[in-house]
Design a protein that fits this description.
- Belongs to the short-chain dehydrogenases/reductases (SDR) family.
- The chain has 224 residues and is α/β, with parallel strands linked by helices.
- The chain has five helices and seven strands.
- The protein has a seven-stranded parallel β-sheet, with helices on both faces.
- Strand 1, helix 1 and strand 2 form a beta-alpha-beta unit.
- Helix 1 packs across helix 5, helix 2 runs parallel beside helix 3 and helix 3 runs parallel beside helix 4.
- The protein is globular, with a radius of gyration of 17 Å.
């Protein structure tokens, strides 16, 4: 039986790189995004959903459960960034980023993890950020949401230890995605999305008795 990976936000950037890597390796991949203008291989299943809305997160979870009997890997990747500072960012910025960057992962994990617990097997990767550990002047609510995401990931790691479910927090620095569109910097100043996908592939390949709890990735020349 093919193994299955669920990747949120799989049409662009880091999510798309993860989808491509695992699809190429023969996994059944299930992904979602608010829009889909992409063409996927036949072993990739797509569901249109806005994961800032709890009802659509749960609808996606139902789609996953109806499509496959088990989930081997869950990658909570959905997220977005708005620059700003707490004292001057637009009203509702915190709520928007918490709903997308944190609540989506919380609700989807709750919907899918019990099957992993029952099997005493499974892996959850949470895409955090270096903004989960470093406060940036123009990071505002994004930093808050990513600090919270790392906190949730740490809690999951402790809770799921006795159940054989591994949890890894991935903390990338500046990654070459659409978020940096228009920035006049050479690509070598960024992490490639494919590199993050390779790290997840490698971590998953380790024996079930070993887990990489936190992985910090930065461009070789450091943060921007």
């Amino acid at each position: 039986m093919n193994k299955t990976i669920v990747v949120t936000g799989g049409t662009k950037g880091i999510g798309r790189a993860i989808v491509n890597k695992f699809a190429k390796e023969g996994f059944t991949v299930i992904t979602c995004a608010r829009t889909n203008e992409e063409q996927f291989p036949e072993n990739v299943l797509f569901f249109k959903a806005d994961l800032s809305k709890k009802a659509e997160v749960l609808a996606f979870a139902d789609f996953v459960k109806a499509s496959v009997s088990q989930v081997d890997i869950l990658v909570n990747n959905t997220g977005f960034f708005l620059p700003g500072q707490i004292h001057n960012e637009a009203e509702g910025t915190l709520e928007a980023m918490i709903e997308t960057n944190l609540y989506s992962a919380y609700h989807l994990t709750r919907a899918l993890v019990n099957e992993m617990i029952a099997r005493k097997a499974g892996y959850i990767f949470n895409i955090c950020s270096v903004a989960s550990i470093v406060a940036y002047t123009n990071g505002g609510s994004y930093c808050i949401s990513k600090f919270a995401m790392l906190g949730m990931s740490k809690v999951l790691r402790e809770e799921l230890k006795p159940h054989g479910v591994r949890v890894t927090s991935i903390l990338p620095g500046a990654t070459f995605t659409n978020s940096w569109a228009g920035v006049e910097l050479p690509t070598e100043r960024f992490i490639a999305s494919d590199d993050i996908a390779e790290v997840i592939w490698t971590a998953n390949a380790l024996p079930a008795t070993t887990v990489l709890e936190e992985i910090i990735m930065r461009p070789q020349l450091g943060d921007l």
